[in-house]
Write a structure and sequence with these properties.
about 350 residues, alpha/beta, Spore Coat Polysaccharide Biosynthesis Protein SpsA, Chain A, 2 domains, five-stranded mixed barrel
């Protein structure tokens, strides 16, 4: 059976502002290493899936960035969403386009902006996930073994039903749970049967289409209207007009939280979703005072800070637990415990009609 991949790359990476901007969001930046995050994602997948079978879902604004950064990706494999509508419509649209080109395939769905250090381990687990997904009508997800009580991730609770496939544990999923508070997250960590939701899913294309029809019938009807235009010169126009009718809903809420035959494979392969600036603490080396430093920096008595310069000298004295990011037109200064709330600044910029800083 053919294996295809769907990379979701339409996000703006707002919690990585001011480095991540509307015109150049996080997935197109070199956050770690000498390649952008989407280039790393493509290179990782090519160890298992041919580039002709890898698709990227994005919007018109980023199509040229993708063509520039991944020139060997077939142009037809860039799926343009006319408007952002969350992950369920993204998966739905990709599924019908993949069905047209690669019928009877198995889809791997994943974000464009995650870091995975052990790529060999990732591919080994992905092969097993594909094998499990190809058995009957199973939906499979990769769960990250939690190492601390993270409150910024959703979690997956597994049951005691565990199978061995290729020497890997494959757990039956009990339920998906939302981002917890700290006390709840600590309980999840100690229980041993909760995993971070990686947002990586594996299923047969026909199976996810079946569940969309059953659980999201309105979206199914929209997709069928789109399919009716396939093979005509109206295909793109119909997709563009019909897509606006799609629900703004996640695949987790629309499908995964309502299905019983879901399996999770626990993973330890150096994963990070790089969701905010504090991720740099986890994925970069720190100096003797716990600082992550990049660029032209002079620091004295500075501890546990993340500081990034765009060329201008940043001099610090006697500060702790701050994030300082200097770009050509914006300097961000915030405490680490507010890193998840950077979006509030963007909201205020819009309120004050300062959108040119976005």
């Amino acid at each position: 059976m053919t294996i295809t991949a769907v990379i979701m790359a339409g996000g703006k990476g707002e919690r990585f502002w001011p480095k991540s901007r509307t015109h150049l969001p996080k997935q197109f930046l070199n956050i770690s290493g000498n390649k952008s995050m989407i280039q790393q994602t493509i290179a990782r997948l090519e160890n298992l899936i041919d580039i002709s079978q890898i698709f990227i879902v994005t919007n018109e604004l980023y199509a040229e960035l993708i063509r520039a950064q991944i020139p060997h990706l077939p142009h037809d494999n860039i799926i343009i969403e006319p408007i952002g509508r969350n992950t369920a419509p993204c998966v739905g649209l990709a599924s019908i386009l993949i069905e047209e080109k690669f019928p009877h395939s198995t889809m791997v769905v994943l974000p464009s902006d995650h870091i995975i250090e052990n790529e060999e381990g990732f591919i080994r687990i992905l092969k097993t996930a594909v094998e499990v997904a190809q058995e009957d009508s199973h939906l499979v997800t990769l769960g990250i073994q939690p190492t601390y009580p993270e409150t910024g991730y959703g979690y997956i609770e597994s049951t005691k039903e565990i199978n061995k496939v290729n020497d890997l544990d494959v757990h039956k999923v009990n339920k998906f749970v939302e981002k917890p508070n700290l006390e709840t997250a600590e309980g999840y960590l100690s229980s041993g049967n909760y995993f971070w939701n990686s947002g990586i899913f594996i299923w047969k294309t026909a199976v996810i289409r079946k569940y969309i029809k059953e659980l999201m019938p309105e979206m199914h009807d929209v997709l069928e209207t789109m399919k009716a235009a396939f093979g005509t010169d109206q295909k793109r126009n119909v997709i563009n007009s019909e897509f606006h009718k799609m629900p703004d809903q996640s695949i987790d809420y629309g499908i995964m939280e309502k299905v019983n035959n879901i399996y999770v494979i626990p993973c330890i392969f150096g994963w990070d979703d790089v969701g905010s600036w504090t991720a740099l603490d986890r994925i970069n080396d720190r100096d003797g005072n716990g600082n992550v430093i990049k660029g032209n920096i002079l620091n004295i008595d500075t501890k546990r800070c993340i500081i990034e310069s765009n060329g201008k000298l940043i001099a610090t004295l006697g500060i702790e637990d701050l994030i300082i990011v200097d770009t050509e037109d914006v300097t961000l200064i915030c405490t680490k415990d507010k890193a998840q709330e950077v979006k509030l600044l963007l909201k205020e910029l819009r309120t004050q009609k300062l959108e040119h800083y976005l």
